[in-house]
Structure prediction request, 565 residues.
Amino acid sequence: MIGFSVFLCKEKIAIIKRKREKGHVDLSGSTFEGKKKTENGTKRLIFTAVSILLEIVFLLFLFTKVSEYATIIDWATRIVAIFLVLGLYSMDKTSSMKMPWIILMLAFPILGVSLYLLVGLNGSTKKMRARYEEIDKKLLPYLPDNRQILEWMKKESPQAGAIASYLTNYSCYPVYQNTDVTYYDEAIKGLDAQLEDLSKAEKFIFMEYHAIEDEEAWQRIQTVLEDRVKAGVEVRIFYDDMGSIWFVNMDFATKLKSLGIKCRVFNPILPGLNMFLNNRDHRKITVIDGKVAYTGGYNLANEYFNITHPYGIWKDTGIRMEGDAVKSMTVAFLEMWNAAGNVKSKELVPEKYVIHYAYKAQQRGYVQPYADSPLDGEQVGEEVYISMANKAEKYCWFITPYLIITDEMTHALTLAAKRGVDVRIITPGIPDKKMVYSVTRSFYHNLVKHGVRIYEWTPGFCHAKMSVADDKMATCGTINLDYRSLYHHFENGCFLADCDAVLEIRDDLIRTMGESREVTEQYKEGRSAGLRLGQLILRLFCGAALILLPVIRCADSNLIISFVG
Prediction:
């Protein structure tokens, strides 16, 4: 069955390519497949959005329509806005995150202050922060210290060792040896390998994904999971409610539980404003028996495997790990699972899952899985990307579906290019969201004028999130080069050094650039004043939308839609 599915998907990709060459395929993204969503998801999001809007309108009414206090409220709000702006300005945050709030509060004091107090302060997440801290205190001690391996790495590869040292100290995830890594340049290859490994599970299966679609790809997985449950294997499924809202019905979790599969939903979407709504689980993790783990850019939905093709060919990647490094992937899953459940910390029982077993890796090199949380104040994902650019001596290449970056990231990329490093970024040639695509392109000019090269992958939409530098180090995971991934999402990735997968990622990016159009020269030209103004407004709007609510995404379908990535 697995081999047949690979054949079918490859045939579909070949058909798309042939049609595209003949001009017979619509690559605009305006396809039935691209617009077809669950009726349940549409109703839930519309109801939630309307509820939030009504809540905001009601608050504004209270502020503005009490005539006898209108002047007092207006002046009081302006004074509060000034103090909030000064406080925000003094915060240790990137300017890209502060400016939308500052402009909003100064331009529209009542609206800006109301939204900032409700959403921007993020105060209601204190309880969640405390919960994560408590869980991490229980879980992280089960990871090995591996300081000796880190010291060896620093001596063998100082560039990579410096990044690994940062990850060890600030993400608390150690670096490993004795781990074999397999790289998949197509998501379908990763899916087929997962199906094979899942069918061999003996003790437990953990799966955590941003989006699950209850269609063909997932149903292949579910068939295997049902079989494993019958064999006595413990199976846990964890998915983000926002990410999956278009793809599954409300009874999906109940259905899985009826099959003997444990299931939890992260941060369910509920009507009304809540500050934790903005933080989503964007991780993609599979752990099997504590011995094998998968991660990468792909979710468990048909389009990721080119079973459907709303935006031409879909490019996604992933990796398989076997060996010691799987311990970190297990801990990352248990962190999110327990934080999302109303369970006591004593029920963590990590010793049951973070196992030690005899394994002899065939490959050499260093492997460091890591997780990133928006609740700890440390932007691990962004710092790793910045460090890749800073430490690179010859080249540093990135592939990302969205390019909405901070000033700090822009400076790191352009400075590397100024030093003579070959800096390249691959983005999609066909967008999944036109507004976000316009914002992505608005960043091109400031990058290319300083020597960064930009490629757009013409066959379709590239969803991979990777970087590679100097044939020595690479990353593969879930972290986009955009605000939401870098600042608001729960993410995970894997840092690789001096292993075969680094060169395989490099070679894949070379092939991908060969299928892309380089737009560097096109965007070196100065933009008109009107275009610059329009892009600035669009960027500001997008920044505000990304900061305020993930349900505000773009107007492609004239609906409020989720940020699935």
